[in-house]
């Protein structure tokens, strides 16, 4: 009979490496494939001495290891929340505490192993080249990274409603705060698909930063340039729009029995995208408030919101699959781009708002998910 | 025959091109009805159509003048539905759902609070539904069906997954609410206990149509 440890390693460790094969291949290539084999050892020794001897560089490396630790922790927590793994609660929950903590320690460190290997080598180099302080710092940091998630996993086992490290906060919120429907989709993204929303937001922020950077390099500020960046940022949200439709189709059907007018459903949709785009609005305001008028900023925000609302409304055509949707989205962007270049932004906003309202009010009550035959 | 509480006129429902329901006319006066039909006959689809959950062709009228087409909001205020296998977004709590239903459908908060306590829902109402068992979800769904001031309550397989104590409470609620004028349409593969509820009639789905016996 297989030991409990072996079964847990199969459930967590093997699955982690299988699911992240692509990630590790890219990482392996970046770490060992970009240097010729003869220079590999001196290259890595140089790299290690670099962060062992420079505090800022060391902090950067520790930050990267923290991200990896969060990735590992997120994976284990996601498995514990996944359908079909409920058996882990009664089984692991029945184990003796010391045995259970040892099992968690093994699971977590098996997936944290790549960092341990690199950090262990760096520590050896550190002690050999007299960087004792940095080596001890790396050791203590990695011990912390290897231990704190164990406490989190163990707590999750006895408090299954804990999504991440926010268990107490969640319970307090659940008792004192009623989630309004406008927040449902954002809750879904942040609790079930945090990587999806965070990656969309990070890439969107990079695009906007690049837009401002290019205008700054050219020593000019053109509202049309900013709106081009805004359109790209909106396009980066397309995956979230299709996710929104799938979420509504799967989970919110019960709301169709509630006496809520189509107008209120429409306002809810507008509010969802307004909230979703708040980070970009803050970023644009901070970078552009000295360069343009508040009315121009309002126009930029209205353009982004109108595009998002129109693209979401298109998904109320049941047969609008991803391929068709992208086609209509790109066609819309093409038309809007020329309207922006011709300084007809408010007209474009008016058209987008009118079209999204027409589609939404015509389709909302008749909408039913299309199942491919 | 007294004034119908719910009337279906030329109601048709297709899934893609496959017809599932084709009901030329059905009028039900106030009462308690047992909706029968084999697996796949269209009982749940019929309930979802009546509750306004899925689009359909034709028209349903409640209390004579509230039309599913012309008064979609008023229509939904008058008809409640408890699903056979309810499911909600994992992060919502029972309290979130109760507040949403009470906020939109209205009704007596104190009364709903009392029913919640009788059913034992108050014990877990602050927890996310992802932590509920199927029985707890069913209790919550039944409780939500009693919010507002509905003319019709549709209960889809209410006898499954709930414990005997809750079953007795449910029968009591059906009797009490019916005495106050609410009509019930109940689907169940198990016969409803004749000592607990007096049926007004039996509805049978065959050949996509519903007939009242």
UniProtKB/TrEMBL annotation, chain A:
Domain of life: Bacteria
Keyword Cytoplasm: no
Residues spanning the membrane: 12-35, 47-70, 101-119, 131-153, 198-216, 228-246, 266-289, 295-317, 324-341, 347-364
Keywords: Membrane, Transmembrane, Transmembrane helix
Keyword Ion transport assigned: no
Listed name of the protein: Uncharacterized protein
Organism whose genome encodes this protein: Chitinophaga eiseniae
TrEMBL record, chain B:
Native source organism of the sequence: Chitinophaga eiseniae
Entry-linked InterPro entries: AAA+_ATPase (IPR003593), ABC_transporter-like_ATP-bd (IPR003439), ABC_transporter-like_CS (IPR017871), ABC_Transporter_VariousFunc (IPR051782), P-loop_NTPase (IPR027417)
Protein name as catalogued: ABC-2 type transport system ATP-binding protein
Domain ABC transporter: 6-210
Keywords carried by this UniProt record: ATP-binding, Nucleotide-binding, Transport
SUPFAM superfamilies xref list: P-loop containing nucleoside triphosphate hydrolases
GO molecular function, one term: ATP binding
ATP-binding is among the record's keywords: yes
């Amino acid at each position: 009979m297989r030991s409990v440890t072996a079964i847990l390693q199969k459930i967590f460790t093997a699955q982690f490496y299988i699911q992240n094969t692509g990630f590790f291949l890219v990482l392996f290539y970046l770490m060992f494939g970009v240097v010729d084999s003869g220079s590999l050892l001196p290259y890595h020794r140089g790299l290690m001495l670099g962060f062992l001897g420079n505090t800022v560089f060391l902090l950067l490396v520790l930050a990267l290891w923290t991200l990896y630790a969060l990735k590992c922790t997120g994976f284990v927590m996601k498995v514990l929340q996944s359908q079909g793994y409920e058996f882990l609660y009664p089984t692991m929950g029945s184990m003796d505490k010391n045995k259970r903590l040892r099992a968690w320690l093994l699971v977590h460190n098996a997936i944290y192993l790549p960092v341990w290997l690199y950090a262990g080598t760096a520590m050896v180099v550190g002690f050999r080249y007299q960087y004792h302080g940095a080596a001890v710092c790396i050791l203590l940091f990695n011990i912390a990274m290897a231990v704190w998630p164990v406490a989190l996993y163990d707590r999750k086992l006895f408090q299954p409603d804990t999504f991440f490290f926010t268990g107490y906060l969640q319970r307090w919120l659940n008792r004192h705060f009623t989630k309004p429907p406008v927040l449902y989709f954002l809750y879904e993204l942040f609790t079930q698909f945090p990587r999806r929303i965070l990656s969309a937001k990070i890439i969107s922020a990079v695009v906007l930063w690049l837009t401002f950077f290019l205008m700054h390099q050219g020593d000019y500020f053109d509202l049309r340039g900013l709106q081009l960046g805004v359109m790209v940022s909106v396009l980066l949200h397309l995956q979230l729009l299709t996710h929104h439709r799938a979420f509504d189709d799967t989970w919110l059907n019960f709301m169709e029995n509630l006496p809520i007018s189509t107008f209120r459903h429409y306002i809810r949709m507008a509010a969802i995208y307004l909230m979703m785009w708040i980070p970009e609005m803050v970023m644009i305001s901070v970078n552009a408030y000295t360069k343009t008028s508040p009315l121009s900023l309002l126009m930029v925000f209205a353009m982004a919101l109108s595009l998002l609302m129109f693209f979401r409304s298109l998904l109320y055509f049941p047969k609008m699959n991803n391929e068709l949707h992208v086609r209509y989205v790109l066609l819309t962007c093409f038309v809007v781009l020329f309207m922006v270049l011709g300084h007809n932004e408010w007209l474009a906003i008016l058209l987008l708002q009118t079209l999204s309202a027409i589609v939404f009010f015509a389709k909302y009550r008749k909408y039913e998910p299309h199942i491919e035959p | 025959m007294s004034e119908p509480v719910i009337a279906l006129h030329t109601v048709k429902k297709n899934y893609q091109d496959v017809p599932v329901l084709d009901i030329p006319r059905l009028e039900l006066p106030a009462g308690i009805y047992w909706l029968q039909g084999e697996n796949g006959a269209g009982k749940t689809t019929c309930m979802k159509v009546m509750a306004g959950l899925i689009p359909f062709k034709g028209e349903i009228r409640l209390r004579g003048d509230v039309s599913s087409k012309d008064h979609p909001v008023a229509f939904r205020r008058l008809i409640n539905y408890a699903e056979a296998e309810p499911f909600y977004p994992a992060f919502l709590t029972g309290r979130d759902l109760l507040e949403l239903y009470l906020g939109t459908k209205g009704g007596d908060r104190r009364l709903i609070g009392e029913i919640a306590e009788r059913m034992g829902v108050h014990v877990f109402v602050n927890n996310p539904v992802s932590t509920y068992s199927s029985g707890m979800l069913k209790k919550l769904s039944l409780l939500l069906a009693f919010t507002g001031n509905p003319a019709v309550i549709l209960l889809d397989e209410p006898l499954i997954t709930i414990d005997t104590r809750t079953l007795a409470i449910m029968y009591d609620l059906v009797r009490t609410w019916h005495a106050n004028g609410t009509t019930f349409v109940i689907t169940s593969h198990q016969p409803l206990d004749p000592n607990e509820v007096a049926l007004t009639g039996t509805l049978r789905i065959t050949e996509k149509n519903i007939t009242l016996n």
